[in-house]
């Protein structure tokens, strides 16, 4: 039997990813890897490490041992004009290794990993894949596992927030009630400062009332 040959691992060109969804997924994945490497450095060598990451969307993520704030303050003080040249030496000389909470790092890594997987699932749900162009909210949910149903619910809630925000904007502009045609038999009405979404056992009320009944 002839052995199947492959091209092997392809080297990824390091350049900015233009596609928004791919860029967000890559950011989450690489950030997880960066924090994991930083935690391993702490565990293996007892080093004190601080990592700050500012996402393309403006969110700041931080990882540090023993504390990000303390390490940043130490760095800023060591590079201030008052003690330039002596601060870095002092920081290194008086460094006392602390016991690294390995369990805490592992828990943090597990949380970040779950966050990454959740982002991947959300992205997959938002992008139709071989469904003939049928919107994701019109696809059948029968047989979906609990985790996918939770992601489906989360996506519906996010969609509802966007629709409500846009409808409120239109209502402020027109200063009259706005009624939008629903999807999948769902109707959305905006009146008297309240927003109601009703259809198929799916009920939301905004502006003082129940939120999210399925």
UniProtKB/TrEMBL annotation:
Give TM segment ranges. Answer: none
InterPro entries in the record, alphabetically?
TF_MADSbox (IPR002100), TF_MADSbox_sf (IPR036879)
* Database matches in PROSITE patterns: MADS_BOX_2
CC per GO annotation: nucleus
Keywords associated with the record: DNA-binding, Nucleus, Transcription, Transcription regulation
At the top level, the lineage of the source is: Eukaryota
**A UniProt-annotated Pfam family:** SRF-TF
| Protein name, entry field | MADS-box domain-containing protein
Q: Does Transcription regulation count among this protein's keywords?
A: yes
Q: Which residues form the MADS-box domain?
A: 7-67
Cellular compartments annotated: Nucleus
Which is one GO molecular function term here? Answer: protein dimerization activity
Q: Which SMART domains match?
A: MADS
């Amino acid at each position: 039997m002839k052995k199947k040959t492959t091209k092997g691992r392809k080297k990824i060109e390091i350049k900015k990813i233009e596609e928004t969804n791919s860029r967000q997924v890559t950011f989450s994945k690489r950030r997880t890897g960066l924090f994991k490497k930083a935690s391993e450095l702490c565990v293996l060598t007892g080093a004190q490490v601080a990592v700050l990451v500012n996402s393309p969307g403006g969110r700041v993520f931080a990882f540090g041992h023993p504390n990000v704030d303390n390490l940043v303050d130490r760095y800023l003080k060591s590079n201030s004009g008052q003690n330039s040249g002596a601060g870095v030496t002092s920081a290194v000389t008086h460094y006392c290794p602390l016991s690294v909470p390995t369990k805490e790092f592992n828990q943090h890594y597990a949380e970040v990993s779950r966050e990454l997987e959740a982002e991947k699932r959300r992205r997959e749900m938002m992008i139709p894949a071989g469904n003939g162009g049928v919107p994701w909210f019109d696809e059948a949910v029968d047989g979906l596992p609990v985790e996918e149903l939770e992601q489906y619910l989360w996506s519906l809630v996010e969609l509802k927030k966007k629709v409500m925000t846009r409808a409120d904007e239109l209502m402020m502009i027109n200063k009259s009630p706005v009624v939008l045609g629903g999807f999948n038999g769902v109707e959305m009405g905006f009146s008297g400062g309240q927003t109601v979404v009703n259809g198929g056992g799916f009920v939301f009320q905004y502006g003082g009332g129940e939120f999210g009944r399925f």
